[in-house]
Every structure is written in structure tokens, then in C-alpha cells.
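FYI - complex with beta-D-glucopyranose, inputs then prediction.
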Amino acid sequence: MTPPGKFPDGFLWGTSSAAHQVEGDNRNNDWWQFEQQPGRIANGDSSAIACDHYHRYREDFALLREMKQNAHRLSIEWSRIEPSQGEFDSRQIRHYRDVLGELREQGIQPMVTLHHFTSPLWFSAKGGWAAAGAAHAFMPFVHRVIDELGDLIGLWCTLNEPNIYAVSGWMVGEFPPGSKGDVASLYRVLSNMRRAHELAYGAIKRSWPDSSVGLSHHRFLMLPASKHRRDRWAARAAELVLDRWPVAPGQLRNVVDAPSDYIGIAHYWGQMCAFDPRLSKDQFVRRFNVPGVPVTDMGLSADPTWMRLVLNDLRRLNKPVYITENGLATADDEWRQRYLKEILSNVQLAIEDGVDVRGYFHWTTMDNFEWARGYAMRFGLIDVDRKTLERRIKPSGRLYARIAQANSLPLDSAQ
Ligand code: BGC
């Protein structure tokens, strides 16, 4: 039994990041190309130098250590490792060996994501994830990572949020390739990603049977606007779009049912759903923020008690759970501090409910390039001066450090 307020022994305390959002100068991927098109990114931003983490990773990991972290989720940039199809860059492989080695030296366990929203230009030129053969084209990179970096990785995350990726790129048009309402491609992308996950899962387990392999699934909470049947249907329909992917022609399955050793959950927000017969383009669902619940700078409502609901939903799967992402887009760091305590107390309640949560990765380490929203969104526990790139741990980062060190919530946290 874990004493009240404490987290289970060995609980992983980390932050989460993605190569393109922090490294800088990732010129050889589809996002870089997309960013150069006028109007794609808020305020005319582009990832550019980002946080220059590519060169400053030692300094950044020292900050993680100062924040008492024992884990860190990061992604490996495919376009650096395989700049043209079938050609591998040994210098870049060495770079990531240094990065992972440095983390280990600092006593920080890496969780490594193989695909976090960016693909090499050669891959996107052939149709990217919507093209037949996409999963097979991804595999030589996966094999290279398995062979050359696998000894440094115990926790693997094959793909980041396939559903958000597919919806943003082929339905909403906020991610490359910027298509809107292309349902046929949406399902092709999801189907190819499902295949890629299965292939990668099998390949990693064959080489590293003791490693733990999963993917990060974005869980957006859809709440019915009323008890009325049609609103419950609307919430369910909205959930289906975001939680299911095709496993065979005409057959959809929940993403969390994919082969995996753990369930990775990214949870940030929720909205209400009402049936609206006028909205045929949106599957007859009107979504809106939950009245009375604070809205983050991303424009979506976020209530920390939802985390417990999301986690309890996974109990039936009887698998370890890692919260691969959770955080708040706000410049109000006091709100972030309150939110952190509330979220973690809800994680604790879910653990008491019987969900086997093994770790929490806060999104994100430092303020970074928030895709189409640019640099205006501030999710970080560390502030980055955009002119000098100087880092400064925010009060929320200090609070997180105290929690991680004690493996427990502060005594004043509401339960
Ligand atoms: C993505 C991150 C992103 C975060 C905040 C997640 O869906 O994995 O890359 O920065 O949400 O929007």
C-alpha cells in the first residue's frame, strides 16, 4: 500500500518534448517547408532556431536534473537520421547517442518517440502517411534506431497521437499537408500509422524483448451537452473520430487496443457536444467549451478532474499507464502551479481507484514552437528568452521539482 499523498515507488517524473519544437534548424522535414508558406503559422513565426536544444541539450538536461526529474520524453528526428531515402547519417546517429547517453548520465530515463508529427521531405514528397507503403517506408529508420540506439532506450513510444496528426493535417488543415475535409486520406493515414505501429512494436520487441513499447494517444474528453439521447450520441460520435483507427477495411478499433506494453495517454482538454442537424460538415456535432471551466490560451477548456475520468476509462485494459503529456497553455504561472497540484491529485485518485499509473510527463520542459500557434503559446516549466535563448526555471518548475523529489504532493494540496 502506498501511504496517502505519496506516489508509488519508482514513479517516473518527467517532462515531454518533441524534436522539431525544441531542437532548431530542422530544415529537411515537411513542417519546415510548411512553415515557409505565408499565413500558416500564427504571427508569422517559424520554428527557425527553436530553443537550440540541438546544441544546448547538456545545459537543458542539467536543468532537468535540478528539477529532480528521473525521466524525460523526447523524440528522434527521422529527417536527420535518414535525410534521403535509404541514406543514413552516422553523424546524426552519434548525436542522438550523445543525447541519450547524457540523459542516462544525469540519472534520467529516456522515453523515446520515433515519430512526433514531422516526416522527412523525401517521404512527404511521395504522399507521406497517406501513401500506400508508408508504413514500410518508415521501417528502415526504425530498424536503424533499434540497432544503433536501442541499448540506450528502455521505454519506447512508436508514434505520437496518430489521430490528432491525421485530423490536423487532412481535416482541419493546420498541419502539413494542410488539406481540409479529406476523409478518405484521413483514414488512409490512420490505417498506415496503425500498420507502422504494429511493425515497429514487433521489431523493437524482437531486438529488445525487455523494453516497454507503446504509443501516445491523445484523449480529448467529449462531454454530452445534456442528458438528451441526441447529445449523448453527438459526444460519442465526436469521440469516435478521435479515438478510433481502422484495423481492417470498414473496421474501426480504439487506438488504446493496439498491441503495446503500456498505454500512453496525452490529456489536456475537453468540450461539450450537442447534436445540431445544420452541421452536416461536422458530422452534426456542435462542440463548445464547458461553461464555468477555465479556457487556456489554446482556446479550449481544461478541468483537472477530467484526468481521473480519462484514466479510469483505461482500467479495463489492465496495463501500465504513462501520462505521456499533460499541461496548460498559459502565461499565468500561478494557474499552472494550481493546475499541477490538482492534476496530480487526480492522478493519485485514479491510482487509488486501481489504475496502474507508472509515470507523468508534463508538457512541456520549456516554452517552445507550438506548431501552427507559433511561440505565443507557453506550456513550459522553463521560460526561454526568445532573444537570448536564456533559460529560467519558472516557479511551476520549482514546484514540480519539490513534488518529484518527495514523490508526493505538498501537504496543502486538496485531495
Ligand atoms: C502534441 C504536442 C503539442 C501539445 C500542445 C500535443 O497534441 O503532442 O506536440 O505541443 O499537444 O498542443
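The chain has a mean pLDDT of 96. The longest strand covers residues 109-115.
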